[in-house]
Amino acid sequence: MERIRPPTVVSQRKRQKGMYSPKLSCGYEIKFNKLVIFIMQRKMGMTRRTFLMELARSKGFRVESELSDSVTHIVAENNSYPEVLDWLKGQAVGDSSRFEILDISWLTACMEMGRPVDLEKKYHLVEQAGQYPTLKTPESEVSSFTASKVSQYSCQRKTTLNNCNKKFTEFTSVFGVGVKTSEKWFRMGLRTVEEVKADKTLKLSKMQRAGFLYYEDLVSCVSKAEADAVSSIVKNTVCTFLPDALVTITGGFRRGKKIGHDIDFLITSPGQREDDELLHKVVNLWKKQGLLLYCDIIESTFVKEQIPSRHVDAMDHFQKCFAILKLYQPRVDNSSYNMSKKCDMAEVKDWKAIRVDLVITPFEQYAYALLGWTGSRQFGRDLRRYATHERKMMLDNHALYDKRKRVFLKAGSEEEIFAHLGLDYVEPWERNA
To answer: How far apart are CA 196 and CA 407, in angstroms?
Structure first.
């Protein structure tokens, strides 16, 4: 009987470079032999990369765990064309012009269609960057290359809601289910929400149980009108306990979106010191009013004079509450229904479950918190990257720290933060990167 070989030990440095990923014994049939895909781990992370590799293989694509001579297509996320070339130089691969260097949007389009899609210009990183001619361009044409320059940082680009990028959604549509959990369930053979619900062996967290219980409501879109209605509830409740509170809706709705999947609120007070019990008082009142369906309060872990995190995706340290509220819908006029339908109307649910996030921030950190919680996620990532690499500063949702001067830079508004970074101010509705 053949013995199972132990996994090869690979150094942490090599793993971080993206040259290593667990080899999956998935056993999928390869349907498309003419292309061999390699997904860069750089700026993506091992968990997401592994998930995408498994997903692509399940669709019939050949995906290599390591960069080899057989690779034809290299896919990168959040990397500019020059960054990919620099990475390739470090791998000693020789002539890099033999690769098709593509943005992650090409792979997601392939996943959506279930087959390889045409290599349009919008998918080529070399053409998206706009700063360098393609490697296959003859020398005689290089001097005439006049493409406009586009910054690699989305914080230097204004991105309205009118963009053509298609959102790639994963099984992560369930409240309380992230990439790691969805990947685990995927490996178990589970492919749909119904299959997960039917599996009695799974141990679900309190948040995940709420996610499945109110799934139909939570997976549906929240309209601007519903967001405004919830905003009135939140403001009225908060001001009951803290009259001078400033309650601001953030996230996609502040960026001008008409629909969303949750509603984020930032709460601060310019007067007295913040009340550590405010969120507890708010949710207790909602319980008494019968509005609270679920809540999880996370206490603040912020330490005074704490240096901003170096990680672009690091969570902040504010006190926050992740809740699901019951939003009652306008009643339907029963006069237009006959008597036979009145019994059915009594059984119709007259409310909708809405996800609501409440974040408490000290007033002196409000501008930074507002910038971070407004998003988009990609805009925030690039803003932090820009601060680190171009300005020698460290930015997070709490503060901006100048590493050269070794001082924290105060800001009373988002405009002041952009000024500290030497950037033109970008309006909230232009941050939809």
So the answer is: 50
**Under 8 Å between Cβ of 275 and 241:** yes
Task: Write the pLDDT tens digit of every residue in 30-83.
Answer: 999 889 999 998 888 787 888 889 889 988 999 999 988 899 999 998 888 888
Classify residue 121 as exposed, middle or buried by CB count within 10 Å of its CB (0-12, 13-18, 19+). exposed
Amino acid letter for position 115 = R
Q: Alpha helices, DSSP H only, in 130-277?
A: 139-142, 179-187, 193-198, 206-213, 215-219, 224-241, 251-254
Residues 217, 219, 223, 229, CA torsion sign: positive
DSSP per-residue codes, 382-393: HHHHHHHHHHSE
**Other C-beta atoms within 10 Å of 89: how many?**
10
Instruction: Tell me the C-alpha distance between 407 and 80, whole Å.
Output: 31
Domain residue limits at 194: 171-218
What pLDDT is recorded for position 422? Answer: 95
pLDDT, one tens digit per residue, over 136-175 is 333 333 333 333 455 667 677 777 766 444 333 438 578 8
Q: In terms of domains, do 142 and 262 share one?
A: no
> Which segments of 255-348 are extended strands (E)?
259-260, 263-268, 292-298, 319-328
Nearest to 332 by CA among 342, 340, 322: 342
pLDDT over 80 at 351, yes or no:
yes
CATH of the domain at 142: 3.40.50.10190
Rounded distance between C-alpha atoms, residue 359 and residue 340, angstroms? 48
Q: How many domains does the chain have?
A: 3
Q: Does one domain contain both 178 and 55?
A: no
Burial class (CB in 10 A: 0-12, 13-18, 19+), 34: exposed
Q: Is the dihedral of CA 317, 360, 371, 264 positive or negative?
A: positive
List the catalytic residues: 262, 264, 357
Rounded mean pLDDT, 104-131: 79
DSSP, collapsed to helix, strand or coil, labels residue 38 as strand
- Lookup: tokens for 115: 């087959």
